[in-house]
């Protein structure tokens, strides 16, 4: 092997090593991203719409007495997808994102401290039932199935979409029917609505007389992007806002194929939690005073704004 071929292989290997690092800061949505370890993204927004938020006594009074006494809420948070929640300066540094700002703003309205614990997406909802966390965040879509075991307080409207590697000829237009995916390999997140949707409709291709699609599930967004870039999957199914943001990062080299299905997204609680009314009132307070709009503008997700927060709305059909 000559020196040039060795050099080419080394550069290719280095690129693949860097992909997971890029993906951890390029798998969300919105406008401005955080600085990735490979310098692929612009700096995270520096404005702080949460700074001016103050406690609202009438809303704080809706909290259970024991929470008011302790002054803290344990938040199980899935972090790793901008602009929802991610580490713009790398693990070990403070997280940032839309979900981080909204959660912190709600906590300030309620007069409590949000004690955040980083957790993998698929573990948070089960942990609510065991009492490990008081609240879960992680772009949890409100679905009929989840409403059987979890309560939700909505704060944004996001949903499901698809993306492919830029320049691919596999898919070129918006996915409106899963039969468009027949014969392809789809990468998605573990425990997500995307996995549920793909699994529940896995027979659509057979009914259409086509080769079935294959689903590969990943625990980290970074692994999904790496798989796409390496050609191990053909398409990603993830959040609308997340894929839009990812496609805006040149180093990600992905193309967003549009919205497939909209879903309300909310704070998650164990069934029957006494916290839901306080959280709903806090989100509505932020909507009313303009803080909510400023947070979404900061993260480029204004198109996903809601007019009012709801407790356990029915799934969008």
Which key terms come to mind for this protein?
317 residues; alpha/beta; five-stranded mixed β-sheet; three-stranded parallel β-sheet; 8 strands; 20% strand
**What does the largest sheet look like?**
5 strands, mixed
Q: Tell me the distance between the termini.
A: 58 Å
| Unreliable spans | 1-42
Q: How many strand elements?
A: 8
Mean pLDDT: 87
Radius of gyration: 20 Å
Question: Structural class of the helix and strand makeup?
Answer: alpha/beta
Order of helices and strands: HHHEHEHEEEHHEHEHEHH
Spatial sequence of strands, sheet with the most strands: 6-5-7-4-8
Q: How is the quaternary structure best described? A: single chain
Walkthrough of the structure:
It is globular and about 60 Å long. It has helices spanning 3-24, 57-60, 65-70, 98-110, 121-130, 193-200, 204-207, 221-229, 240-247, 276-289, 291-299; strands at residues 72-77, 113-118, 135-137, 150-165, 185-189, 214-218, 235-239, 254-270. Helix 4 links the parallel strand 1 and strand 2. The chain is an alpha/beta fold and 317 residues long.
